[in-house]
């Protein structure tokens, strides 16, 4: 793509929707070490719609609490403000991109099923490799490919050409994106993460899930999302827009030291865990 057209394309992408005020406020709060769980809960409670979504998720089979949790402040006390922030962010992303679109070539429902699968497998991997925040891993997996939705929604005709090229030549989506657009969905994810002022530890997986070796702020989480994405593609969970499995960056996941028993556990239990998380798809 010519530089002038690429510049125009990026300008169009930068007109992306902003996060609601309350989520933007929470993004800033969780990056402040002085923030308390009570303050985060109180901030979410100012938005009745968001509060209802968070409570619906907290009381779902995904968490499996034995008794009903009736307030965001109670949920924040139990789960911690990072987990509640991640739930609020996940619910908001689904809300912003809820439109299923008119493009028959790119199946948004299958896309969200793939994203959910990556989130669930990232959560399971996080537990296996002792990543300190499982819910953060889930959220990172859920939003890692949101750049694809952005391209479909904001540069629709160009994205149509991308998807057609994928089908004609059996390319990976990011290969076709680079050929047609001069950038790919991971680049768009980076732009979006910056625009939304997301924590850098969430920006990295959005930007580098296909090139985890480039991650500076959170290489472990980026490696988790990289591997979870490959697992999902191998297991054919949903569809991210192409039918190939990207190459595995072995160096990025070498420290995980997963055994054959770990891999078998992930394969065996992923379907059950995804079923528990399907409430997220109800928001699409």
Largest pleated sheet: none
Structural class of the secondary elements?
A: mainly alpha
What is the arithmetic mean of pLDDT? 89
Q: What oligomeric arrangement do these chains adopt?
A: single chain
**Assigned CATH class:** Mainly Alpha
Q: How far is the N terminus from the C terminus?
A: 33 Å
CATH topology: Hypothetical protein af1432
CATH architecture: Orthogonal Bundle
List segments where confidence is low: pLDDT < 50 over at least 5 consecutive residues: none
Helix residue percentage: 55-70%
**Helix/strand order, N-terminal first:** HHHHHHHHHHHHHHHH
What would you report as the Rg, rounded to the nearest angstrom?
18 Å
Tell me, briefly, the overall form: globular
Number of domain units: 1
- Put simply, the count of helices is 16
Question: What does this protein structure show overall?
Answer:
The protein is mainly alpha-helical and 284 residues long. It has one domain: Orthogonal Bundle (Hypothetical protein af1432), CATH 1.10.3210. It contains 16 helices and no strands. α2 packs antiparallel against α6. The model has no long low-confidence stretch (mean pLDDT 89).
